[in-house]
Amino acid sequence: MNGGRGVHMTKVLVTGGAGFIGGNFIHHMIEKYPSYKIYNLDSLTYAGDLIKHEKFQSYSNYTFCKLDINDRKAVTELFFKEQFDFVVHFAAESHVDRSILDPGIFVQTNVLGTQILLEAAKAVSVQKFVHVSTDEVYGDLPFEPNLYFTEETPLQPNSPYSASKASSDLMVRAYHETYQLPVNITRCSNNYGPYHFPEKLIPLAITRVMEGQKVPVYGAGSNIRDWLHVQDHCAAVDLVLHEGAAGEVYNIGGHNEKSNLEVVKTIINMLGSNNDLIEFVEDRLGHDRRYAIDPSKIEALGWKPRHSFESGIAETIQWYQQNQLWWQRILSGEYRQYFERQYSFDQVNG
């Protein structure tokens, strides 16, 4: 798996690589492209976890960089030092509930941080900048058959989180239109799968049910999301990175619309428990009713999701059963002490 020496290696910077989707993308890229040099840039906020990358620490084609994308000077120096070929930008504050409580950090990281990365990418003439966004920028979709988000759907974000992502999308577009920076924007539906931080619905439900605890469900649980397995999402981003037309937006969806209540009941049933564990709680402010994506444009590039929801959720539950130490470390907070002991973050590590 180690890269060769003395030959130029394609350099790919993955921001937010200690997070859920970015972390899975790093696994995907290292396994698929052993001749690529993968850089994992992350500031290690509360949701950052490096335990999942432990096996890569000895690989010559993997480098971790502890760096905040809001640090303009450090970002610029890193880009000029390494001369990246590709940037895949996952780094973002992403939890809607947290954005309602503290919108400012979402504007700082998701908007200003993205602009800092774009400016550095422009300065060193990267070959492609892929900005990973969300279907939440489109807002609320009515419960109507055959009505889906497309790439032409107007942006109508309803939470501080989605507003910050919509703003960063527009900044990425502006850098393409004004400076001809080769960019793509991807907008995905709700992801699930391995290494999902247990504050989100599916890992929260799985871990709560496994421990016999109540599972909170907002409102009546009728809000609908289109669920996408993270490995399918990674394959789609990989395709856009290599085959996407510069300047284009690609929606990535899983063809798996489920209500939140249906998702929780499925997990409870698969784990052999009962619905008494469901606890309905006060609905979230500005809670969008439905998200659903028409992925025809990326399917025309040759992508199809490999997982149905049924197979994907069964695989995910099994992963959490087999990796209890990982999520127990997350829930206890031990994971932060663990990787602070294991790694030195004073400089770029190879």
From TrEMBL:
<protein>
    <recommendedName>
        <fullName>dTDP-glucose 4,6-dehydratase</fullName>
        <ecNumber>4.2.1.46</ecNumber>
    </recommendedName>
</protein>
<dbReference type="InterPro" id="IPR016040">
    <property type="entry name" value="NAD(P)-bd_dom"/>
</dbReference>
<dbReference type="InterPro" id="IPR036291">
    <property type="entry name" value="NAD(P)-bd_dom_sf"/>
</dbReference>
<dbReference type="GO" id="GO:0008460">
    <property type="term" value="F:dTDP-glucose 4,6-dehydratase activity"/>
</dbReference>
<dbReference type="Pfam" id="PF16363">
    <property type="entry name" value="GDP_Man_Dehyd"/>
</dbReference>
<keyword id="KW-0456">Lyase</keyword>
<keyword id="KW-0520">NAD</keyword>
<feature type="domain" description="NAD(P)-binding">
    <location>
        <begin position="13"/>
        <end position="316"/>
    </location>
</feature>
<dbReference type="GO" id="GO:0009225">
    <property type="term" value="P:nucleotide-sugar metabolic process"/>
</dbReference>
<comment type="similarity">
    <text>Belongs to the NAD(P)-dependent epimerase/dehydratase family. dTDP-glucose dehydratase subfamily.</text>
</comment>
<dbReference type="InterPro" id="IPR005888">
    <property type="entry name" value="dTDP_Gluc_deHydtase"/>
</dbReference>
